[in-house]
Amino acid sequence: MPYAITKHCIRCDNCLPQCPTGAIKVIEGEYWIDPSLCHDCQDSLAPQCVDSCPVNSPVPWQAKKGRCKIDVRTVPSLDLFPDGKSHPFASAIASWELCNVLAQRHSLTWEIDAAGELYYQRQIHGGKGAIAFRITDSLDLEPPVALKGDRALSAIETFDIRSACLHLIYAAHVTSLERPWEEEFIINDRQIEEYLGLDKRKDLSKLTKLVLIKELAQQPCKLIACIDLPQQGKIKGIRLEKSRLWHLLDTQHHFQEDDLGCKHLVGLTFKIKIGQWAQHFLNRQGCKERTAFYQYGTLPKALLSAVMSIWQQHEGAARMMLWLLFKTKMGKEQRVTIPTLMRVAYGERKLSQTSLQPENRQRLLRIFESDLEVLDRYGLKPVFDPVTYPPEIQPLWAKLVDIPEDAEAALEFWIDDGSNSTRLTDAAPRGKWNRLMNARILHFELPPEWEQQLAKSKKKQRTTNRKTRSKSQVALSTEYIIEARKKLGLSQRDLAQLTGKSQSWIRDIENGRFQAKLEDRILLQKALGMNA
């Protein structure tokens, strides 16, 4: 049973060094025992705070009953999601990778540098740039000190995938600021509860929610980044060394006393500021002057509550959902290979081990297909490539979509299915794993609030790239490529060799599965004898 400190406390400090779990806190001059940390000194004959207190202030803690009084608090920033659907958020590469680190944690490839610091690094812009993340356990020390060895590994193990939702909430708040790297915003526990759907969890006590919110709010602030990007046009190269992505400037604890004078935590208020990366990636004026970026997407509120609902049973689905939030911003036609999705959902190490252990493949396949079904249930419907991901290796739930709802029609459907040589309920064909390693999803059909994001990004792309859409793109239709190739007597393999591409890439272009990029269109023009 945890203990609480009554109003008889004389603040003598005798109990502070005696507590084995560090549950006794001094907040704004007031002594308080965190009941989530206090375990009644199970390894001792009696609670140490009771033994050391000269006035018998500590007493067994009793959960507070009744509603919390509305106290005077710092006014928070305006609520997000005024329409209940979505809000812009900072979606630059630093934001995407931080979300990946918080979601995938120990599944990523962490390395140790010459100083013994643990870091995760990703190459970007074709290896011309890089972004690396390190972990710190301090929230206020500047410059932050990165953890090493076992301490860093232990810190990674404590990270919670739900903290990625707090990161996205922060990223949404800063888009409302004109110069976010110079300004700050304030958010309280009530707002976070509503955004995450915790206000509907009647099975959790107020204290449990507050402890969870405080932990999740701190975790995005415990990662520091090194960003190294080359010059892009007029935008100068970017180089940041061990810079916090989020600064937790202040945490206010709101207490309420009961009849015995025991303080009960009833609220939290956080003051947050974005790191210096915002000056390069979330700079409206700099974007107009073409000296910086202003990269943003749209954060659906439904995604936050979805992750909070599925993170425990379907963590792989939650990881893919968070990853697709950024991936789909690039356009609906973005193809995704199945190995890429599996790496996001389960990590490179697990995928590699399973590939070498055939006995474990079936289990991972069942988990993956179940996670895909969860995405489909939340509106992220995968569209399978009919060439590389044909019906015979698709999940059973995807095949059952075509079953009619009418009883007689459904009966006729199953009768026809039973008379075919290949039935829906037949076992998967041999070699399904190897075929899946070459399969891909053409795109994901998105929920309405995600479609809104895609429409905005496409409109912006049409505006900025209007001049680059030249006659060559119109002329290089699929029909023209096929006709020109045949006139020259070239096979798909020959054209692939001339352009330095794969034969499957040429086949996909001719089938209209995707459009070639500008530099690839130039290659095709030269190979087909057309003036660029």
Automatic annotation (TrEMBL):
The keyword Repressor does not apply. It holds the Pfam family HTH_3. The keyword Metal-binding applies. PROSITE patterns: 4FE4S_FER_1, 4FE4S_FER_2, HTH_CROC1. SUPFAM superfamilies: 4Fe-4S ferredoxins, lambda repressor-like DNA-binding domains. CDD domains: HTH_XRE. Residues 1-29 form the 4Fe-4S ferredoxin-type domain. This is Transcriptional regulator.
